[in-house]
Amino acid sequence: MSRRRLLHIVGAAVAGAGVAMLPSSVVSLIYREWTDAAWIAVAAVVTFVVGGVMWRVFTRPGELSTSEAFAAVGLAWLAIGVFSSLPYLFSGAITGVTDAVFEATSGFTTTGASILPDPGALSHGILFWRSTTQWVGGMGIIVMSITILPKLGMGAVQLARAESSGPGPDRLTPRFADTAKRLWTIYAGLTLAETLLLWAGDMTLFEAINHSFTTMSTGGFGTDAGSLGAFSPFSQWVVVVFMIAGSTSFALHYRALRNPLEYVKSFEFRLYMTILGLASAVMAIGTWGNSGGIDTIRDAVFTSTSIMSTTGYATADFALWAPALQIGLLGLMFVGGMAGSTSGSVKVWRLDVLYNASWMDVRRLVHPRGVFVTRIGKNPVPDQIVEATQTFFLLYMFTFMTGTFLLSIVTSIAGTGVDLPEIASAVATTLGGVGPGLGELGPAGNFAGLPAAGKWVLSAVMVVGRLEILPILILFSRELWKR
User: What is the count of structural domains for the chain?
Assistant: First the structure.
């Protein structure tokens, strides 16, 4: 492996993060927040210079191998999480390194878990940076799912091949640059559309832009302590629509521009909407006795969509709902949206593959001489994709159990009094990129009360879950670091 080439790529990513900070400094200038504008600019310069030096010094020609590509993604995301904390630290918005890295990592991984009791207390520039981290991170994960994960048979391209008879429709164009450009255009267009609709409601332009950034990325950072509960029903329904859009395959959006019936043709999309509809109905029935009426239905639909899309907004404190409903929401944290979207967690198509593969195994026991094929809809799924999906799910659950074990030890030593359901929900929500957990870590609370070691554990879990485990796991392979 070429370490110089690897550091060259990481340097470019860090330099890009520095450039992304500059608009936040401009926002502070617009609102006459002179001190914050200066410190954000300093953070941008420091980040850009460090990244630029790495990019120049460690340059080496040649294409990245598959292992190097995975390693570059893992290292770049870790480095960006650290450098993205600088605006918080330099401006004094967050004083501790642990808390700043946690907030920055939660941003770029589009998790939405926060240590801030009231985001509204932040300056406009810092709030905008907080939202920008999620918007940039959301698009980054789409590009990765289309271009890098397919190398191990785990990305959206494999799903598209399984769903249709054509030669890989998720490869929108022959060239990666053209594909990325079209995905960015769709992403930006949907963000603009949501901004205009929210602005037409009860949000200011600044609030509309921030919420559009964090909705399309399925991130969930808000500008108010009350999340979306602080805004009108109109704004909440608009956000529901765009949370679904953000958790739908962007390659499917592209195909639907020419033929809207592509949504109906997609088995994964139909399955996603079916699960979401059933979850919303269960939540509405379970909470009907609280108040009843349209507000109950809206809260049920909003909460189910927010959790399953891994956005993490809230209009109601579901930590106060019946235990059975909380268990249901915890289960939704392991579902996620479609492949090729900004959504996190396991993804609907993987769960469908796992279900069908398991059912085929049962049928083989009954009919040993039968020939059975795992399918998505009516289309067969190659064995290598089934095996890769089973491996991913095994690693995902292993990560969940390991994270829960480590966080339990850390909180027990620190004597924080967090119980096991809350600990499990904290790991599930950060691994899946959802945001809020249960109890004190729910929508009405935050993660500030966890010990520092616990925040580092969850920060690591966020990155591992967002990058779908393998890009981080491969960093611990001795073969990778051999010259």
Answer: 1
